[in-house]
């Protein structure tokens, strides 16, 4: 028995390249639908701050510049979802799965995904947005070379994730204005919430 019943509480994977605007759309989804937003990056940062045994291990991995093992990320997600399972109206899983094996493991350990919303934008658009963000954020990883590499890595892995779920995948044109994009999101989520 899966620990979460996704037929009653929708599980939505939010995917999109860096700069696709998924952060902005997640905020709008939370405001309208009251879904519980879980970003693996936030969960990892919170865990590191907690000072637990696991946190020490994670800090060491990140300091070496390595990726946190899939099972650790999955455990954090599962714990966070179970902690909120009683009151959640739905779950927005942001930026996960990043690769095919993560999607398979998630569905085995937690529950089948209800729908996947993919914010699609051209590499040119994403690069332009990220460079614009770099000007205001001063983020070290927002220079053109690094951005191109990040986008390529993202797209290669993402294509494999998307190919696995043809029937659950909803592509959204993320080149549009924020409101036009959210209109597309509402068309996907309204029927789920009405059930």
UniProtKB/TrEMBL annotation:
Pfam families: ADK
Xref: InterPro entries: Adenylat/UMP-CMP_kin, Adenylat_kinase_CS, P-loop_NTPase
Gene3D superfamilies according to UniProt: P-loop containing nucleotide triphosphate hydrolases
Keyword set includes Nucleotide-binding: yes
Enzyme Commission code(s) on record: 2.7.4.3
This protein's UniProt keywords: ATP-binding, Cytoplasm, Kinase, Nucleotide-binding, Transferase
MF (Gene Ontology): AMP kinase activity; ATP binding
Compartments it resides in: Cytoplasm
Catalytic EC class: transferase
Keyword Transmembrane helix (UniProt): no
One Gene Ontology CC term in the entry: cytoplasm
PANTHER family xrefs: NUCLEOTIDE KINASE
Family of the protein in this entry: Belongs to the adenylate kinase family.
Name of this chain's protein: adenylate kinase
């Amino acid at each position: 028995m899966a620990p979460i019943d996704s037929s009653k509480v929708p599980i939505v994977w939010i995917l999109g390249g860096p700069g696709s605007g998924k952060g902005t759309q997640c905020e709008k989804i939370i405001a309208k639908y009251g879904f519980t937003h879980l970003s693996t990056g936030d969960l990892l940062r919170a865990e590191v701050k907690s000072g637990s045994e696991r946190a020490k291990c994670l800090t060491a991995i990140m300091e070496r510049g390595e990726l946190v093992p899939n099972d650790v990320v999955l455990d954090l997600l599962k714990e966070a979802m179970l902690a909120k399972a009683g009151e959640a109206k739905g779950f927005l899983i942001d930026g996960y799965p990043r690769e095919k094996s993560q999607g398979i493991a998630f569905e085995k350990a937690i529950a089948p995904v209800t729908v996947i919303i993919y914010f699609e934008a051209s590499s040119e658009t994403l690069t332009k947005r990220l460079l614009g963000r770099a000007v205001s954020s001063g983020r070290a990883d927002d220079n053109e070379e690094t951005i191109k590499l990040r986008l390529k890595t993202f797209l290669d892995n993402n294509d494999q994730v998307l190919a696995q779920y043809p029937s659950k995948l909803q592509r959204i044109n993320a080149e549009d204005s924020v409101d036009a994009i959210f209109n597309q999101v509402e068309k996907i989520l309204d029927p789920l919430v009405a059930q």
